[in-house]
């Protein structure tokens, strides 16, 4: 924008039409020039009211609806500056009056908001402006005038057809908007318009919004006395209710607006008296509402007008009871002087004293002071009165810690022995809620000694309650005062309750004084250790174990660790494993699982890993040193012995549980690997080699026998059994084969009897049974002179095939070859699954080729060979022999065979073969990752089968409880499995040592920081106490007992329970001395 453009805009603002025309003639585009506020010449002319500039610019094509940086068009600017003529010009030239600026105001709304009646009259001359149209906020122009009290514009709108009965989008009529906004003049205009129209004004006054508020409700909410006056003078009734059943008097009373309430009484006396006794949704009268917010002047006025003092709300609370419950001192005094009944009770039979004490210290002072005048005689009567729960005022004073009320009640003769429906005394309440000062006052009273050992309905004394809630300070007070340790109705001692809730400081304090409670049992035979374990309190369990708690069984024959496993409490179980008594705990038999470690495998495998880590002990040497060793303790992996010293009949119980529940990490742990390695070297390898040796003899004998007799059959025209019997080699071989088969069949039957049908579902067992049955079918006819036919040879063919295939499965037991066998079998199973899924494709193509080529090719003359041929063609298509010659000679009957062949080539060799190759590669990768686990699983199964057959005495000789490995000395490693696992162990122990040092260092730093913060806070607290004493300040503590400064935390770190006991003992002694 150059200087000439700026000059042009200045001339438009000044209204110099002659000079403006000269600039325009030089460059007509200057009409579209904008200044820094994005204003055009039309904006500037409208702002100053220069009509000639406007007319000239509009006649020469100026943009009439251009917007500046505030979204205002020239029409907006003309309205804001109140130039009706300019507004008229712009509307004549067709400007859009419905454009909204950034304040979401259009032309008519802007005029109404500013109350420019002359501008509004100009706007309403044009039919394009709808006086009842909603704007973006959902309001009509009449709503806008009502909210801004633009009474002149409101009158014009009504005269031009604006509707009073039209709501905005949120359900308010203009009359409600005016009342709520305090627009008294506009509201008066509305009422005058209705009257002038000859309509019933009461109908307009009864309009309701979305909450069923009439205009008077809205007027009261606005707080404008003038608006309320207008509504009342127009005849609005005070007794009309909205959704919450509030009438206007309820609202005015709650606000505490005395002038408004007086005005209602003055102008609508009859309606006022009716509203005075009406109830809202909580069945409260206006007097209740005034009492609720302690508006004394409103209460006095309503009482003077005859408000009912004894009417109750939904909870049967009279205004006096409500004042007491809210701590409204002034309201209570006013109501009492007016004659309110101090003996009234609410729905729970609570009197004014109950509610006053619950309402606060000020309320209790109010009740017990002389301000009641005429009712001071009834105070003693109220003092020991019980509510529906059997509680007296002293119960609530003790519960809430109202010290001033407590003193007043004790002076008034309140009974400290009074019991509620649960037979709990005020002292029990004070103990339960941790009100230390209240407990001291009750114990220091005349009857204080009598309440020290009182019990409630559950047989719980104050010590039980304090221990249950972790109030250490109160527990210390009770012990100091000589409270007797008793048991409740379920024989629970205070220690049981403290342990059940995990309060370690309470446990420490009780054991420091009453150590005999450590192993006490309740009616369920549970000790404190049982309860802390059942409720998952780690620190409490560790503390009790550190204090030498006995590991006993409850009535269900369960130890505390059985409960931990039952609840699956990981943190507690982990902490017990890390405790110094872990070996003693793990040695305990479990009623549920037999062995504790079995429960860990089933329920908490991560904790089982921690147990196995503890059974792995590295030597103190550097992990890189040659003499560095790792000792493995197999005690918890072995089956336990019974009382006679014999092993249980289930061998490898723990490892089989790991296999059964899929505990991969446990099976691959170095302890498990070395345990299996020890067993493999002890008896697994010799037995496996021996078994494989005899199997090779059987397999070779069967093969030689079959080949020899097949050769005899081919070379001789007739086969006789005499020839067979005279052949000593055949006779010898058949004897070996039959003997081996019979032995294995008997062994399989015995295993089936021992393990029922579970053994039958093992693939290798079924295969061997089938093999030996086929072998006997093949061999027996030679021995018993039965006719030799083709069926026997077919059995022999399958027997020899299965025998050599089964020899491959034998190699799974050996580490160097087992991995390859596993990979082969996995891929084989995948292939079989795929072939079963896609078998329909083979049938489809086999039938198609049979129907189309049965007369041209011998391979497709029958259905089964056609299907078999389609399967073989995946490997070798044989196109030239089968199809090409026929294509060249044009001897194919059905041309559809071309389509079938193309589909076959696409689907079978390409798609299906690639799918099989991809699956095979994917399986190999997954098998390589899990090969170790599969090998371990097979080893477990193999060792289990072997141990079932071995004599117990021999098995006991093979088992070792400990096993030491030197990972850096290759000559001392007895197995390649161990050699492979040890390097990772070195790194593991090194990392554990480094991380443990870092954690220990960080914990020490944090401990030092916490100690410094604690000492600083104690010094500051002491300083504040001294300041308050010097200044004779009466603190809130003198009136309100806030309870203990802390409720004992259940998450304290107890690294050493015994030291913790000593530290706490010294702390208690210091407190007692103070």
Instruction: Based on Cα principal axes, name the global outline.
Output: flat
Class by SSE composition = mainly alpha
Report the count of strand segments: 3
Largest sheet: 3 strands, antiparallel
Poorly predicted runs of 5 or more residues: 361-377, 642-648, 973-994, 1049-1074
Strand order of the largest sheet: 1-2-3
Report on the structure:
This protein has 1074 residues and is mainly α. Among the domains are: 237-347, Ankyrin repeat-containing domain (Serine Threonine Protein Phosphatase 5, Tetratricopeptide repeat); 693-813, no CATH class; 827-928. 62% of the residues lie in helices and 1% in strands. It is built from 56 helices and three strands. Strands 1-2-3 form a three-stranded antiparallel β-sheet. α15 runs parallel beside α17 (258-267) and α19 packs parallel to α21. The longest helix is centred in the last third of the chain and has 55 residues, at 976-1030. It is a multi-pass membrane protein. InterPro entries: Ankyrin_rpt (IPR002110), Ankyrin_rpt-contain_sf (IPR036770), Ion_trans_dom (IPR005821), TRP_cation_channel (IPR052076). Residues 692-931 form the Ion transport domain. The chain crosses the membrane at residues 683-707, 731-753, 765-784, 790-811, 818-851, 897-921. It is found in: Membrane.
